[in-house]
Write a structure and sequence with these properties.
Length: 272
Amino acid sequence: MSSSQVTQLRPTIGIIGFGAFGRLITQYLAPHAALRVYDPRSAEPDAQTYGAVRTDLAAAARCPVVILAVPVSRLAEVVAAIAPHLRPGTLVVDVGSVKMEPVAIMRAGLPADVEILGTHPLFGPQSAADGIAGLKIAVCPVSGRRGRRAAAFLRKVLKLKVIVTTPEAHDREAAAVQGLTHLIARVLVAMEPLPTHMTTRSFSLLMQAVDMVRHDAPEVFEAIERSNPFAAEIRQRFFELAAQVEADLARDDDAVPPGQPSITIARTHAGA
């Protein structure tokens, strides 16, 4: 078989959105597919494309598989723009950090003759710095059969741990998993500069977690905290419990005479 015939057998994938995550997708799909990339903002024209061909929106949307790597806040706009160019049977995939809202947008805005797959790679450029094998991705098949084949590709070829779920189940868990991580990271970043010399192992691990998300685009935080319908409840419970801890500490402080160590502190030092 000639090299041209091998090239023809490679599937063609259109990637719409070439920010940090769009480039990460391109990097790992490039060995397996012919890629056409389009960024609505035309950002970073000199960015590494890993062999992908830059093209216009219509050409990217005419590919058999179209991946929407755009912020959730812009998804409805992009869906409306690509809908006239999609071919029957096209598999449209999103990679948003929430799933209920993007799936609803795609169901409402895409033609009935395309297939829809919601995904959420549970990693980003920072956590994927050493490769993606063994990392997790949530997959929500919405319509059609090709989504299941895509999930098999993710598992068998890219070696990802595929979690098949529903948009609602995803968002319920992500509200805590991502919502708390990004919330705590946002607060700790605001408190900087923090100690870097006399640190404990637990503090270092905490700051490693912060570093994994500190450079995420602001749209990621907004999607996680505002577009997830379950995030507000998680935030409220977190702040209520934090306030309770503060109230408990204030009561303990009030109960100890000035200049005297609290019983808790005394016992801690006695057992050290």
